[in-house]
Amino acid sequence: MRKIVVAGLVASLALGLTSPATAAIIGGDQLALPGVQINLLAGADPAPTILARTWILADATTGQVLAAKKAHKARPPASTLKTLTSLTLLPKLALNGTFTATRKAANADGAKVGLEVGQVYTIEDLFYGLMLPSGNDAAIALAQANGGVKNTIDQMNAVAAQIQANDTHAMSPNGLDKPGQTSSAYDLALISRAALQRADFGTIVGAKRYRFPTKQSVGGGKHLIYNLNQLLTGDYRGVVGVKTGFTTQAGRTFVGAAKRKGHTLIFVGMGIKDSSEGAAKKALDWGFANLRKVKPIGTLVEPLTPLPTAVPTSSQASNLEQVAIPVEPTPLVTPTATSDPVAQQAIKQAALKVPATQAQAPSFWLAVIVVLIIGVALFAWNANRNRRRRRYRY
Which residues cross the membrane (predicted)? Predict the structure, then answer.
């Protein structure tokens, strides 16, 4: 009898040691294995060579993970964490609401959209400032509009837990390096998949440029800000977003997504040694070509509970630029502060795509109107003087 009890205890202990480990591998056991993981079927092309510390390629439509390397390895996420910021705050903040920029927000470190203290912005402005030029100042402003930075970080971590992004621990709303702040390629794919199910998020990350308010423009005008995502600005076929990232500790991080033939593929790379755009193109091209020629190595799990889908009092994105792109350069924007050479190059290329007509509004037309008014006044005064001269002469 004693032997049976001991055997039972040993079996229970063994189950206790093994079951949690298996359960902890969210999405499937193969995702925890070292090296590149891929299950090629007959006729499949060889796996793409992706120069990154960790990466994942997944079908957001079916939830299947097609290939990965150290998908659950926790690493600094850099600005790709802003996808979680957006996923958390879009259901909470009305896009047509307003926020007056604070000194704390305007003085944020790193890349900025250029908030000016005391200037009033719509929440929509701030989301575009967050996701296009990766404005850390916009991240702080949105967090303050949501009741404070700490409150927002707590909510971000709650959302991460809700969607089972268990490798993710947010310590900031902007992704700047912080001790203990991590995510993983798998988690960023989960976050981006959930976010792309929101139309408002898709519209924002799919925009190449946006007219952003500035005090410096005559008449309280706006200037163009640009999306740093070169996969998007380079017109990759089917691209839908989503986010770039770079810090000293994280290196280059990137989330890119494209949709073709009813399938949306998501690529996430962390610690990318190649260009972010180049790595994403290789992975996505391979994925679309071999979608039915591989056996999935895992799945993108569903949220534990449904995420909110409501859009609080949505606006009409009136500042979104929807214009053709000419060849002639007309630089209008001060480059966003960033140390990433790839991001700097993206800004330069975007500046070459500004419509020439933008250089004429609004200060150009204001000057034209002033000149016309002065000209008409001078003409009337001169005509009146000539009439008086003729009267006195005769």
Answer: 364-383
